[in-house]
């Protein structure tokens, strides 16, 4: 009742409440910002940077070996030795040590920072007596970087209290590797860099189910106390915890083809959204309250990181402080008490806010926190403060849900799924420490992305083990890549190899064109008696047949000044006919032609007919072609060595179909050249690369020794599929090719 009777408090709570319709709008804006960051054209102007991480796989349980991890945190460096057993259960053995980072290091020269990190590595390895074998290192670097490889990343900007000189714009992997080399740790190789959010995703992938999204909200907690800690298979214990980060970020496995900033187009790649800057362009102005504006103005980066200032645990205490200050000024709180202390920055911590919203002890915590500030709160004051704290934290959860829903919907759409089922790794003080935050995050995400089912997985060990998994996956994929490269090496032809094949092809072509050498050529270079290409003046109505597979097509083609019009029908050729007698095959073809002409009302017309016969033939004229051999599963008897046009005419006589006027027989390659030549008279080559392959081209008659005459040109059907049958390509044949050859019918 005390709350309901106070309009000032009601207005404050209303301002801090984001209705579902507004959350839908925020989700839509986040989606737009994400797409802007993914696009090569708009990436430079994007606030949500969508940075590629070059991590293209999650653990599969086979990773094994010793790995070193270095994690640069807000106030310390954590080094880990992780042993993966590769037994599928992904329960690693881990040792780690914490080194506190001196304040002057965080704000000094960049070289000093990386030298300090390398010294920590040296001390850590000396302490565990590590062997001198090659040791891969994964580097957790929780700052915005522009990665161009998994082991190459330029720092975009510092945050979290760091401001080391001569690092921004530099490759931080190289800086660390150089510092490690100065410590004479030449066996340590930095193979992967990631931020803390990626580490969280990989950590949550270690439970057996792949995790493809990660979300950090508030302070991460890393096991900490300066000194040594062991857990996993070596020694069971529960190390103390230390805050590692206070902002918010997310990452997810995106379809690689949509990450336009990289050349990779297949598979998936983890994208670091860097969504803390979402809203810096004003897209969240209708969400911001006067309290948020005050927090922003007092921050070290006014106008920047708008989304993070609404969600990150570093700012929630400040939002509450400004709300309480405003309510006190309106005489809605602390009447009779001096509230000057509330005008002091950071006097109210987020941890206190989280304690105040607790259902059981929240009121007592509120009183204790307020009295510690010198205030004299009433029961009503404590109740109103608790409501403000709950509103601020609930709003943060709802906005996080809008961002997460945008990611999930994007994944569902880009994968063309009706429903996305995915695991989401979550870390951060807000998620772990506040049941209501978790509930709001889960429920609102479901409302905003109903087409997605997301299971939220809490991160057990921050980023350390996840970084080890990134490193291990990197090594596994590199080993696979080397094996694939080894297997595929014989298939990779150099320019020299291709030039040699070109010379061999040219030699076989010349043999095929020669009158005396044609019979011994593997490239037959068969004359087609087609001596010209279309010039665009052709007109008329024609029948066309197309036989080259299990289907047979009959067409009527009408060529007019305004273009080409066609009608066609496809007829199936049963296997029994394909492999039966020649008479049965050609009788079936005539029956199909008659059926088509009847349907098209063409039975009374005698139209010129062109026959596309896609099998090797020795043409003796434009309408005379002797079948050399069957291919493509055909084996009809009594056809090889016979003129296929004559066989077609005989079948027409048997079926008493007298209106058939065959004027040309060509193969499909010649048909391709002529079809394209109608649109472009410059087309003088035809090429087919499909189930089989062949080529044709217009050759100078003086070079065609198998046909009389030297004037003009003639289309040559190369029949190059048999190129190499004489052994000239044996040295580029691989074991794979030989296995395929042995299993074929020819």
Mean pLDDT metric: 88
The name CATH uses for the topology of the largest domain is: Hexokinase, domain 1
Helix content: 25-40%
Tell me how many strands there are. 27
Strand share of the residues?
A: 15-25%
Overall CATH class of the largest domain:
Alpha Beta
Number of helices: 21
CATH architecture of the largest domain: 3-Layer(aba) Sandwich
- Low-pLDDT runs of 5+ residues are 222-245
Over the alpha carbons, how many angstroms does the gyration radius reach?
Answer: 38 Å
Would you summarize the structure shown here?
The protein has 746 residues and is α+β, with helices and mostly antiparallel strands. It is built from 21 helices and 27 strands.
Structure write-up:
The protein has 746 residues and is α+β, with helices and mostly antiparallel strands. The chain folds into 2 domains: 1-492, Hexokinase, domain 1 (3-Layer(aba) Sandwich); 524-722, ATPase, nucleotide binding domain (Nucleotidyltransferase, domain 5), CATH 3.30.420. The protein contains 21 helices and 27 strands. The strands form 7 sheets. It has a 6-stranded mixed β-sheet, sandwiched between helices. The chain has a 6-stranded mixed β-sheet with strand order 8-5-2-3-4-11, sandwiched between helices. Strands 20-19-18-21-24 form a 5-stranded mixed β-sheet. The longest helix is centred in the middle third of the chain and has 36 residues, at 379-414. The protein is elongated. The termini are far apart. Mean pLDDT is 88; it is low at 222-245.
